[in-house]
Amino acid sequence: MMRAARREPCERTPVWLMRQAGRYMAEYRAVRARTTFLQLCKNPALSAEVMLTAVDRLKVDAAIIFSDLLPILEPMGFDLEFSAAEGPVIHNPVRTSADADRVRELEDLDPLGYVIETVRQTRRGLDESLPVIGFAGAPFTLASYAIEGGGSRSYLHAKRLMLRDPGAWSSLLGKLARAVTAYLNAQIDAGAQIVQLFDSWVGCLGPDDYRRYVLPHARTVFQGLRPGVPAIHFATGNPALLPLLREAGGDVIGIDWRVRLDDAWRTVGHDRAVQGNLDPAVLLTGAAEIRRRVQDILDQAGGRPGHIFNLGHGVHKETPVENAVALVEAVKELSAAGTP
Amino acid sequence: MMRAARREPCERTPVWLMRQAGRYMAEYRAVRARTTFLQLCKNPALSAEVMLTAVDRLKVDAAIIFSDLLPILEPMGFDLEFSAAEGPVIHNPVRTSADADRVRELEDLDPLGYVIETVRQTRRGLDESLPVIGFAGAPFTLASYAIEGGGSRSYLHAKRLMLRDPGAWSSLLGKLARAVTAYLNAQIDAGAQIVQLFDSWVGCLGPDDYRRYVLPHARTVFQGLRPGVPAIHFATGNPALLPLLREAGGDVIGIDWRVRLDDAWRTVGHDRAVQGNLDPAVLLTGAAEIRRRVQDILDQAGGRPGHIFNLGHGVHKETPVENAVALVEAVKELSAAGTP
User: Fold this and answer.
1) What is the sign, positive or negative, of the torsion defined by CA atoms of B183, B185, B186, B190?
2) Does the distance separating the beta carbons of A279 and B258 come in below 8 Å?
3) What SS3 class is residue B164?
4) Eight-class DSSP state of B157
5) What is the tally of structural domains in chain A?
6) What is the ipTM of this complex?
7) What is the DSSP secondary structure assignment for residue B251, as one 8-state letter?
8) Where residue A300 falls among pLDDT bands split at 50, 70, 90?
9) Is the minimum CB–CB distance between B275 and chain A shorter than 8 Å?
10) Has B32 been annotated as catalytic?
11) What is the CATH number of the domain that holds A160?
């Protein structure tokens, strides 16, 4: 995994899955029956345990820490709740310039100490040949939650603030970018060997808006990270942003399934590594279809150094665990066999 | 508008807006206060009236008939309801091969006579210099509603059927493609001078799945349309599909805002017309920003014949009407002034 992130030759393609510890797994559901999602995130021993269990079950090549994008917003002044029905809810969303002013700089990481401790305990429990991946939400995606107050379909509140009050927008994203940088560096200091920045919702923007309103803040994050630690820049929902994601930064560019991996890698440039890009819906089929699709993606990667196999987005909760296991086995076996 | 659809030179760029008659408009809300959405769709006089009112208010260059994507599903055996809270709901969705078998061929268009009558009454009430646009949902988008039973975020039921039971999938999409073709031809016979096929949700697929599971059915529709009537092929959510949309058919390719218009037109090929592509969120700003963005899109079109100005998706209900009016005025004025 570390070699692939640096585009060094590997004996086979490394593989892990976004949301590899999650509701599709019985062991995870058993833990969640005893605790809320936010309580679980705030319990480092349990967070490490659910991830280590998933790594053991799937035999993947990396452990991303078990956490969420949104806890970083709490010490910045947001009132965050995970509701069973609606998912994440922020009770005091940013809608005006005055709201943006009230968002606090993250000067003290102590309130996020539980995440840092999760990194440590995950690192301690993990086979030493496997890396721990730290992560954070990207400034745009965090801002979209902070402004919408939760999930959204069209991100109208976020876009309205962005377009009507670029000063407030820039102030908010600047605070988020600085917070995320410090947060990822703290994860690195605690033992994370790779970090991933999730810009999960930025695909709702076109390239010109991305360049103007988002790219400078994403770049702030990548430029501020500890040198020598590979960073993965992941976005979803809009293949037309790929050249700009590269421009913003990241040693590895995450690719979703809306574009062929070969086309995406050519667009990103072969001087960067890529991660992806199976449609997670394929995990709802069966072993034969999964194997066929894995081979197809490996063929597109063409044995070129610098490919990390992953889904194009997180594992769906409807996924049979045996299919996730079959995926990992197929990647290991077919990539070791080499491409024809 | 007709000249632009045929890539003939125009004195200025024609403009209309998807969902130009809708909840953002007080006149429309007044009508809806007295009737449900489905009752309105089934009342040709009222459907024609709401569209003619919108055309008059906005001074756009075309009237799309007021209707919805889903009524075509009723005579095919689906139990359709528009709920105020959840939007469209289909109470008997297709989940199995047996369900797909039960879907009826649309052999008789009489049950959709109210749509055909809406075309006639819209044509009758409209200034004769303006065209009436007929429309239908594309096979994939109709199938996604028919399978999911309503809106969806990840289209897992649809993808599962598509990948696990390609026979049932193909049977369902074949029936939908034949139904849509007959339905659009009936609209043309009743006076529609242009037709638009809406593949609103197909952006959840990657190019290989589109080519294999969707393209043949979209092509069936375009190949079956009355010759000589320009057809607009609109999809949203994935710029990587543009070359395949072109391949499937359509004289005009609809472009959403996730890609620059100049890049999109180059990808589609300058031997096709294009329609688009302002982010509808821009209509939540103000006249100055709208004007700036219109100029930018006109500059990208570069005065080349074959550009129809539109949004990249429908007007949001939060849009101030005066901003929609300002958009239409800006397109007319700035395109008549010529590009620098």
Assistant:
1) positive
2) no
3) helix
4) H
5) 1
6) 0.96
7) S
8) very high
9) no
10) yes
11) 3.20.20.210
